[in-house]
Specification:
heterodimer, A: mainly beta, seven-stranded mixed β-sheet, four-stranded antiparallel β-sheet, about 0% helix, globular, B: mainly beta, six-stranded mixed β-sheet
Chain lengths: ~120, ~110
């Protein structure tokens, strides 16, 4: 069964550094998402992406964050200047159809980002 | 806009007894509803989804959920808990926009 894959599984970075989290969504899916889960807390929506542009974003997704689909297969989340509070598990997800459909999200296994 | 409330942050049941994890939602649109499970240090796995074809939805590992529009609920049940069911369970709602919203999660503990 096709899967969403995320790399790396664990990333350690120093405060102020830039990080790029990578995801390969399921190949025929059209809608892509990033979520984060701070340890012990709920899963929070960050951003959704369709047709090479952001379709929705949350208050968390400020100017420090950006997303890109550089080559038709990868979907990346960049944090420009990391803060301690960015430490979290970041989940990528994709789904075949979008708004108004019951197409479920398929999640990757996550990247644990630790900012020191 | 949509929202989802999981009424219990922790639920403990004995092995072999029924499981009930409660979820209420609100949505301006006809919602799509899902349950996901997260085992410790693992990713998020789809348990089941509400498709509007049937109000009682069967998922993997013996779980079911019933969509009740009048109560705006989508509670997750299982007739007989197994030790391997110990995990975090998330109720998820998708409505008229692309912000798919997670509930805060319910941690299910299984007592031997």
């Amino acid at each position: 069964e096709p899967e969403v894959t995320q790399t790396p599984s664990h990333q350690v970075t120093q405060m102020g550094q830039e990080v790029i989290l990578r995801c390969v969504p399921i190949s025929n899916h059209l809608y892509f998402y990033w979520y984060r889960q701070i340890l012990g807390q709920k899963v929070e929506f960050l951003v959704s992406f369709y047709n090479n542009e952001i379709s929705e974003k949350s208050e968390i997704f400020d100017d420090q964050f950006s997303v890109e689909r550089p080559d038709g297969s990868n979907f990346t989340l960049k944090i420009r200047s990391t803060k301690l509070e960015d430490s979290a598990m970041y989940f990528c997800a994709s789904r075949l159809l979008g708004t108004g459909s019951n197409s479920p999200l398929h999640f990757g296994n996550g990247t644990r980002l630790t900012v020191t | 806009a949509q929202s989802v409330t999981q009424l219990d942050s922790h639920v403990s049941v004995s092995e072999g007894t029924p499981v009930l994890l409660r979820c209420n939602y609100s949505s301006s649109y006809s919602p799509s509803l899902f349950w996901y499970v997260q085992h410790p240090n693992k990713g998020l796995q789809l348990l089941l989804k509400y498709t509007s074809a049937a109000t009682l939805v069967k998922g993997i590992n013996g779980f079911e959920a019933e969509f009740k529009k009048s109560e705006t609920s989508f509670h997750l049940t299982k007739p007989s808990a197994h030790m391997s069911d110990a995990a975090e369970y998330f109720c998820v709602v998708s409505g008229g926009d692309d912000k798919i919203i997670f509930g805060k999660g319910t941690r299910l503990h299984i007592l031997p």
